[in-house]
Design brief:
elongated
Length: 337
């Protein structure tokens, strides 16, 4: 529920009414927007009578929020949220590209790729240390050692690190990470989401391969409800009946999410199709659709990559793509981080 106060409302009357709401076990959320005198009520508001609230002379109007997600709802926060991680910004006109290999394979590999994507204009280094794989026999990542190598690459290049977590018990290992990624397979790992909600580290939440946008936003709600409001959403393709691509990029999800939530929305064109030659057109489509950033896989030797080589660009290909991305981002009035 949203309570809109009159511009002439006395602060004391607003505080008194807010105290009444808190006494009923409701959480008060101040809404930052064109009208700063709004509040959102979070909790069980079914027993509240909007007409009785409107009867207060300090209240202009009361609106119920029908969607099950509250804190991520744009109605609760009309302005775009800007998420800051490692000194870089995402959202609110700030466009960021995250680039790097699917998996960290060695110090030379991750450092070399970090240096190349950084020179091309990437704002973040992405790389997997813990890898969820369909087959138990596939490369599972370098785990804690991989995290250390990512941090060393950051020290040499200055690029903030984005990497995936799979288990709440691993959170202490991610203390030096700039942004923690929740992969598609863990989008509804609610214990993990609640644990990340208790952290301050920004979270990159990927959409599940068969989840609706409402389910996606409800997963983000878990994190915000825990107290961590630094969440970036990532559309990475969904599973459909079409077998010619690894997934089907739901490009319509970008403007739809932007209409429903204030959180930044980025797109992963690499996982969307699973084919390196499709990364460029899908990236351009994402920018045109209003995305706040891109996550692109880059490998120095794709044919010999331990995972996802078929969808990875070479550093040279990424450099050429970044020139086009920069021009497109500028055309649509955003600023590259």
């Amino acid at each position: 529920m949203i309570v809109i106060f009159k511009n002439s409302a006395q602060p004391e009357k607003i505080r008194r009414l807010c105290s009444e709401f808190e006494a009923q076990g409701l959480e008060i959320h101040k809404i930052e927007g064109r009208r700063a005198n709004w509040i959102g009520l979070i909790g069980d508001t079914s027993g509240l009578d909007p007409d009785l609230i409107r009867a207060h002379d300090c209240v202009e109007d009361v609106k119920r929020i029908s969607e099950p997600y509250k804190k991520v709802n744009r109605k609760f926060c009309p302005n775009d949220t800007v998420v800051c991680a490692g000194g870089r910004k995402i959202g609110g006109g700030h466009f960021a590209v995250m680039a790097g290999p699917c998996s960290v394979e060695s110090e030379a590999q991750i450092t070399g790729i970090a240096e190349s994507v950084g020179k091309s204009g990437a704002a973040f280094l992405r790389g997997g240390a813990f890898k969820p794989r369909t087959s138990p026999y596939a490369f599972q990542g370098m785990r804690a050692e991989g995290l250390e190598l990512l941090c060393r690459a950051r020290e040499k290049t200055g690029l903030p690190v984005v990497t995936e977590i799979m288990n709440p018990a691993h959170i202490p290992l991610f203390a030096g990470v700039d942004m923690i990624q929740v992969g598609a397979r863990n989008m509804q790992n609610f214990e993990l989401l609640k644990a990340l909600g208790r952290q301050k580290t920004p979270v990159l939440l990927k959409r599940g391969l068969a989840n609706t946008l409402e389910e996606f936003l409800m997963s983000a709600e878990y994190i915000l409800a825990g107290g961590n409001e630094n969440v970036v959403l990532c559309e990475r393709g969904i599973r459909t009946f079409e077998p010619s691509t690894r997934n089907t990029l739901d490009i319509s999800a970008v403007p739809m999410l932007k209409s429903k939530t204030h959180l930044p929305v980025i797109v992963d064109p690499s996982h969307a199709a699973g084919l390196s030659w499709m990364v460029e057109p899908l990236a351009m489509a994402a920018i045109a659709a209003g995305a706040d950033g891109l996550m692109i896989e880059v490998h120095n030797d794709p044919p010999h990559a331990k995972s996802d080589g078929a969808q990875s660009l070479t550093p040279a290909q990424f450099d050429e793509l970044m020139k086009k991305i920069g021009a497109a981002v500028q055309f649509f009035g955003k600023a590259m981080e």
